[in-house]
Specification:
- By secondary structure, the chain is an alpha/beta fold.
- It has one domain: Carbamate kinase, CATH 3.40.1160.
- Helices cover 36% and strands 18% of the residues.
- The strands form 2 sheets. A 9-stranded mixed beta sheet has the order 4-3-5-2-1-6-10-11-9, sandwiched between helices.
- β1, α1 and β2 form a beta-alpha-beta unit.
- α5 packs parallel to α7.
- The radius of gyration is 17 Å and the shape is globular.
- It starts with 8 loop residues before the first strand and ends in an 11-residue tail after the last strand.
Length: 248
């Protein structure tokens, strides 16, 4: 019996830091190639895939702002970093024969399409991957918020947040070896406990629209497919969930 994917249309949020690989900075084409192969595998199951990529591997507006740079200018620079990452992902996908479109919230017609909701949905229906670049197009909003917004706009079934760790923890697992992972959380838990898996605006947007979030480690090969198939993975954030039971 052939198993069917749990979700028909997904939005995959990839942290910019994930793309660094072992180099510590910039884009690892080995990492981006691996992610592209997994996206292709998911596409071949008939799943419609949209992607939002962060820009933290190249530039972080918040960090630059904390060092004295004008926040608005810093955030726009961060948005441009997401366009660079999006074009790199597009190139990797198309080399594998996956038709891809990049739509940017900041208009730059020579390299991307402008973001148009109906056009994005039409691309998805035509089995193209759509990569949303440029965040929301506004300073002071994160790419997590952009992912939540686009997911709601296109009617995605789930937001998959791909990170470097196994899920959501009660403290930073990169700094605290005794950090405890949550298997399930409600949106309110995330906000109340200030767990910082996504910013409050992004979580609130998902909560208002009952959009489930799965936070998982994208560095483990096959995890994108596992998440799409509905296997137990990472941390699930959604309506009616609770952190009463912590996982391993």
């Amino acid at each position: 019996m052939v198993r069917k994917p749990k979700f028909k249309r997904i939005i995959l949020k990839i942290s910019g830091e994930v793309l660094v690989g072992e180099e510590g900075y910039g884009i690892s084409f080995e990492v981006i190639g691996g992610i592209s192969r997994e996206i292709k595998e998911v596409m071949e199951l008939g799943v419609q895939v949209a992607v939002v990529v962060g820009g933290g591997n190249l530039f972080r507006g918040v960090d630059a702002s904390s060092k004295g740079m004008d926040r608005t200018s810093a955030d726009y620079m961060g948005m441009l970093a997401t366009v660079i990452n999006s074009l790199a992902l597009q190139d990797a996908l198309e080399k594998m024969g996956v038709f891809t479109r990049v739509q940017s919230a900041i208009e730059m017609r020579q390299v991307t399409e402008p973001y148009i909701r109906r056009k994005a949905i039409r691309h998805l229906e035509k089995t193209r991957v759509v990569i949303f670049a440029g965040g929301t197009g506004n300073p002071y909003f994160s790419t997590d918020t952009a992912a939540s917004l686009r997911a709601v706009e296109i009617g995605a079934d789930v937001l998959l947040k791909a990170t470097k760790v196994e899920g959501v923890y009660d403290s930073d697992p990169m700094k605290n070896k005794d950090a405890v992972k949550f298997d399930r959380l409600s949106y309110i838990d995330v906000l109340k406990e200030n767990l910082r898996v996504m910013d409050a605006t992004a979580i609130s947007l998902c909560m208002d629209n009952q959009l489930p979030i799965i936070v998982f480690n994208v560095k483990k090969e096959g995890n994108i497919l596992r998440a799409v198939m509905g296997e137990k993975l990472g941390t699930i954030i959604g309506i009616g969930e609770t952190h009463v039971g912590k996982g391993s």
